[in-house]
């Protein structure tokens, strides 16, 4: 079950490389990088702690997350922790929070990546 949209992650990384690391001509994203951010999204879903009124600071045309999968997993995690408390839906703020945290992880990884080669690897 995938938490992230692979194509959107690749586009986002290649777009951000131009802004975060302007001298580096990165043209590819490795499979390991996609798997790393898939794992990061899984961790964010598993251990989420959403602020009460959280909204994304900016809008994008592509979502990095597969919202249906993330909603399902958040509901499952909540049911495991609180079986007596019935939750029927996930707020958009929870999805926004997880997506922004994933964006932060990608940018942090880009900032610390050496400018070697044309492939982004975590």
List strands and helices in order, with pairings.
Layout lengths: L5 H15 L7 E2 L1 H16 L20 H15 L10 H21 L6 E2 L2
Parallel strand pairs: 1-2
Total beta strands: 2
Range of strand content = under 5%
Shape: elongated
Largest sheet: 2 strands, parallel
Number of domains: 1
Number of helices: 4
* SSE order, one letter for each helix or strand: HEHHHE
What share of residues is helical?
40-55%
Q: Give the integer mean of the pLDDT values.
A: 81
Summing up helix and strand content along with how strands pair, one would put the structural category as mainly alpha
Distance between the termini: 21 Å
Radius of gyration: 16 Å
Poorly predicted residue ranges: none
Strand order of the largest sheet: 1-2
Detailed description of the structure:
This protein starts with 5 loop residues before the first helix and ends with a strand. The protein is mainly alpha-helical. It has helices spanning 6-20, 31-46, 67-81, 92-112; strands at residues 28-29, 119-120. It has 4 helices and 2 strands. It has one domain (6-120). The model has no long low-confidence stretch (mean pLDDT 81). A two-stranded parallel ribbon has the order 1-2. Helices cover 55% and strands 3% of the residues.
């Amino acid at each position: 079950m995938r938490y992230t949209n692979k194509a959107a992650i690749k586009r986002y990384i290649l777009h951000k490389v131009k802004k975060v690391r302007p001298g580096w001509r990165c043209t590819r994203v490795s499979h390991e990088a996609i798997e790393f951010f898939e794992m990061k999204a899984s961790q964010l879903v598993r251990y989420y702690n959403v602020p009460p009124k959280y909204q994304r600071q900016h809008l994008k045309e592509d979502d990095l997350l597969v919202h249906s999968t993330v909603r399902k997993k958040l509901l499952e995690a909540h049911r495991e922790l609180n079986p007596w408390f019935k939750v029927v839906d996930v707020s958009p703020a929870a999805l926004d929070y997880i997506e922004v945290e994933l964006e932060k992880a990608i940018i942090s990884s880009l900032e610390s990546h050496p400018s070697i080669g044309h492939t982004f690897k975590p």
